[in-house]
């Protein structure tokens, strides 16, 4: 059963209890044929539900494997240049996912702004992104990642007019306008490409 069929069947399960409870089957105790039909129907229902569960488990495992692969790519990039933000890969991936951002955007900005935390803002703490022109500090790197991701994703009402519904180039040009740094967007996008492909392929997919 393909994915679309499984989804359609899952949706149909919402109505099955009502149908089962109201369908006029006559006197089942005196009608073995009707009873057999009902048993077969229930068995089929259970098999289909098991198929949906198995599909969801495979889908969830694949999604988790992709998250791990992306996080490893970020951390490996940071490690290769001895950058302090190594270990923040999974947090960056998770916040990018929450805010519908390319998973490479946050680490690339951090590399461009502070060499991955080596030269983060000096007057405030835990700001490796240059956020707020280095006038805003955070209690942790995790908080900084959450804040920057939420804003770049257009999910902060105070800044959504700058970032909402924009592609990567548009987001970067709002983050650091060309009038300030002419090639900023190009530089960050180049770092993103160095970190990895937008849609990485898992090992078993590459071999299939």
TrEMBL record:
This is Mannosyl-glycoprotein endo-beta-N-acetylglucosamidase-like domain-containing protein. It comes from the Bacteria.
């Amino acid at each position: 059963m393909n994915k679309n069929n499984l989804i359609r069947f899952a949706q149909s399960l919402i109505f099955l209890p009502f149908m089962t409870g109201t369908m006029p089957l006559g006197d089942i105790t005196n009608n073995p044929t009707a009873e057999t039909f009902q048993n077969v129907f229930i068995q089929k229902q259970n098999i289909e539900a098991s198929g949906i569960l198995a599909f969801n488990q495979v889908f969830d495992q694949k999604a988790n494997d992709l998250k791990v692969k992306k996080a490893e790519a970020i951390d490996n990039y940071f490690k290769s240049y001895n950058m302090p933000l190594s270990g923040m890969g999974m947090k960056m991936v998770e916040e990018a996912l929450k805010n519908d951002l390319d998973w490479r955007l946050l680490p690339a900005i951090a590399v461009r702004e502070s060499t991955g935390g080596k030269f983060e803002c000096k007057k405030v703490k835990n700001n490796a992104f240059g956020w707020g022109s280095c006038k805003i500090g955070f209690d942790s790197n995790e908080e900084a990642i959450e804040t920057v991701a939420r804003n770049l994703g257009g999910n902060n009402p105070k800044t959504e007019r700058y970032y909402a519904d924009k592609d990567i180039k548009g987001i970067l040009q709002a983050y650091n306008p060309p009038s300030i740094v002419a090639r900023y967007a190009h530089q960050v996008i180049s770092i993103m490409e160095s970190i990895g492909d937008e849609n990485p392929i898992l090992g078993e997919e590459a071999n299939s």
